[in-house]
């Protein structure tokens, strides 16, 4: 009736979290705000905010106006902001405006980058902030939200 948890059952539970279904931002969706996930995000819509995740694909219709941070990035769409990843792949339809920080980078013919590249061997540590100014920011999340709303209404 009662049994001791064995190591195999624990490993399966941990592995199932990594194999979870991706989060999808569909083409008709517009997100205003930051997105944080440990898993995979499939972006075909528009995001006005920062994205931090384990892996992401930005499809041709997808766009991000903000920073994009992930271990693995496949970019077919548009990103305006900091792009930071261990593995960054820019496909022919990719349009990036901003800085790209990477360990491994591939750029296919047709991809457009207006910005600069920064290669590094140690890109991530456990306390990587979502926003470069996050460490020095004294604003509360509510104040930050109100600031973003004011920017949109202007």
Topology:
Blueprint: H1 7-18, E1 23-25, E2 30-32, E3 35-36, E4 40-43, E5 46-48, E6 51-58, E7 63-65, E8 68-75, E9 78-80, E10 83-90, E11 95-107, E12 112-119, H2 141-153
Parallel strand pairs: 1-4, 2-5, 3-6, 4-6, 5-7, 6-8, 7-9, 8-10, 9-11, 10-11, 11-12
Q: Give a count of the beta strands, DSSP E runs of length 2 or more.
A: 12
Distance between the termini: 64 Å
Count of discrete alpha- or pi-helical segments spanning 4 or more residues: 2
Q: How many distinct folded domains?
A: 1
Alpha-beta content class: alpha/beta
What portion of the residues fall into strands of 2 or more residues? Answer: 35-45%
Question: What is the helix content?
Answer: 10-25%
The description of the largest β-sheet is: 12 strands, parallel
User: What's the average pLDDT?
Assistant: 80
Radius of gyration: 18 Å
Summarize the structure.
The chain has 2 helices and 12 strands; from the N terminus they run αββββββββββββα. With 154 residues, the chain is an alpha/beta fold. It has one domain.
Question: What features would you describe in this structure?
Answer:
Strands 1, 2, 3, 4, 5, 6, 7, 8, 9, 10, 11 and 12 form a twelve-stranded parallel beta sheet that branches. The protein has one domain (22-132). The protein has 154 residues and is an alpha/beta fold. It has helices spanning 7-18, 141-153, and strands at 23-25, 30-32, 35-36, 40-43, 46-48, 51-58, 63-65, 68-75, 78-80, 83-90, 95-107, 112-119. It contains two helices and twelve strands; from the N terminus they run H-E-E-E-E-E-E-E-E-E-E-E-E-H.
């Amino acid at each position: 009736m009662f049994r001791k948890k064995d190591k195999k059952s624990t490993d399966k539970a941990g592995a199932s979290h990594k194999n979870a279904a991706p989060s999808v931002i569909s083409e008709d969706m517009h997100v205003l705000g930051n997105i944080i996930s440990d898993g995979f995000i499939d972006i075909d819509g528009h995001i006005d905010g920062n994205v931090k995740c384990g892996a992401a694909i930005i499809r041709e219709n997808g766009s991000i106006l903000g920073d994009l941070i992930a271990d693995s990035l496949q970019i077919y769409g548009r990103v305006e902001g900091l792009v930071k990843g261990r593995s960054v792949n820019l496909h022919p339809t990719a349009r990036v405006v901003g800085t790209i920080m990477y360990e491994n980078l591939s750029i296919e013919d047709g991809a457009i980058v207006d910005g600069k590249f920064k290669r590094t061997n140690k890109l991530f540590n456990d306390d990587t902030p979502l926003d470069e100014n996050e460490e020095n920011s004294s604003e509360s999340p509510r104040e930050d939200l109100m600031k973003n709303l004011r920017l949109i209404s202007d």
